[in-house]
Amino acid sequence: MTGEDLRLIGAALGGILLAVLMIVRGRLHPFIGLLCGAFAVGLLAGLPLPETAKAVQKGVGDIIGGTGLVVALGLSLGAMLHLSGGAATLAKGALQLTGARAAPWATLGIAIVIGLPLFFETGLVLLLPIVVAAAESMAGDDPAERDTAKLRLIMPALAGLGVVHALVPPHPGPLLAVEALGADLGRTMLYGILIAIPTAIVAGPLLAKVTARGVRLEAPVLTDHKLDIATPGRGSALLIVLLPVLLIAAGEIGQMLPGLRGNTALAAASNPVVALLIANLLALPLLFGRRLREAAIQDAVWYETMGAAGAILLAIGAGGALKQVLVTAGLSDLLARIVLMYAISPLLLGWLVAVGIRLAAGSATVATITAVGIMPGVVAGSGVSPELVVLAVGAGSVFFSHVNDPGFWLVKSYVGTSTADTFRTWSLLETAISVVGLLLVLALSYVV
Q: Do residues 314 and 72 make contact, with C-beta atoms less than 8 angstroms apart?
């Protein structure tokens, strides 16, 4: 490695460290911290300030212009399911079909289904109040046993949401990784589901048997709110939840069949933005009925959507800026040379880069955006399956949620755990998803 290579690595580490200090110690929003980190990387690497600024603008524009639409449409769909009570009726209906013994497995399945088209925080806000209420009704009389029983119902739901967020498009992180690495969307979805299910089983019901013991819960800080309207039917809610995934899957399968290949309607349906837009348009009449035109309902849906979208889009846009500066400075090419020189597994490298960004920035989506942005050269040079790199990066992006992750505080507030017990339960759950996911990706690489 040359002196320039070492300078580039030092610049990358220095910029990321600055972002960490500003976010964690300075308590600044990730948007500001990541932008400052991006400029620091460029200047420390020797890029002129105007060139660094152009890279920052390009990075933000690429992310907001592409993934931003998916994020916004997913959040609006989540707001409709939340405010109409559609997600609640779907979850309660599924839990009524199971007894107390099967309830953890039921909540795992519900979380995977409900989490498929939604951003992680949206799925969390939708599902956790329902699961917490169900856990209250199913728990026994002894306080210690009640808390353990409640956690053994809640943790599988968190695992289900976590695995689809990390591993299964059309979630924004995996979807952006698919686009950045030129991976096949249908194949990535298939591989992601194959890996997500066993990963969720290990990180959810099985791990909860160990981590839930001895944890005492306080009253949740956050509670659920929805509009005072007639609750939609379970069939309508289930259709809205599954529709984006079904449209994308139908489009991808259609392109593989000789008789349907080239069909423009199917090709359009496989576009995540189109699929989510169709789901949004159908959700309004199916979930709200004739009341969809009421100003109060429209205001509530879009107020909830925009409030969440603003913070998320700013954070992932700044993550895109950091990624682009790293690429412009030459880090992607350097990593490709290192992989070829030292025979490092590209899958392990992608996972490690995502883990580093995750621990530094907190956001799983920012970790994915940054990691995949510097991996194209590695993928092209090594010939590794881009679909598996997408999944390896996705697994790394959820490693050990801690205090700089908004999801950490959401889980703590909804579940009622102390900070220490949130580390013991939620942080370990995320780490299990990350490690088991990587192991399964590595195993799958020997098969496909």
A: no
Torsion of CA 10, 12, 14, 16, to 10 degrees: -150
Half-sphere exposure (Cβ direction) of 107: Cα atoms closer than 13 Å: 32
pLDDT tens-digit profile, the chain (448 residues): 788 889 998 998 898 889 878 877 888 887 898 899 999 999 999 999 999 999 999 988 887 876 788 878 888 888 888 888 887 787 777 777 776 678 888 889 888 887 877 777 777 777 776 777 677 666 666 666 778 888 888 899 999 999 999 999 877 778 889 988 999 988 999 999 999 999 999 999 999 999 988 888 886 655 555 677 888 888 898 898 888 888 888 887 777 776 666 677 777 777 888 888 999 999 999 999 888 888 888 998 888 888 777 877 888 788 888 889 988 988 878 887 887 777 789 999 999 989 988 887 777 888 898 888 888 888 888 889 999 999 999 999 999 988 778 788 878 877 888 888 999 999 999 999 999 999 999 999 999 8
Q: What is the DSSP letter of 25?
A: I
**228 burial class (0-12, 13-18, 19+ CB within 10 angstroms)?**
exposed
**Structural contact between residues 318 and 373, judged by C-beta atoms closer than 8 angstroms:** no
Q: Please state, in angstroms and rounded to a whole number, the distance separating the CA atoms of residues 177 and 175.
A: 5
CB atoms inside a 10 Å sphere around CB 248: 24
Q: Determine phi and psi for 160, rounding to 5 degrees.
A: -60, -45
Domain ranges in the chain are: 3-445
pTM of the predicted protein model: 0.79
The amino acid that residue 135 corresponds to is A
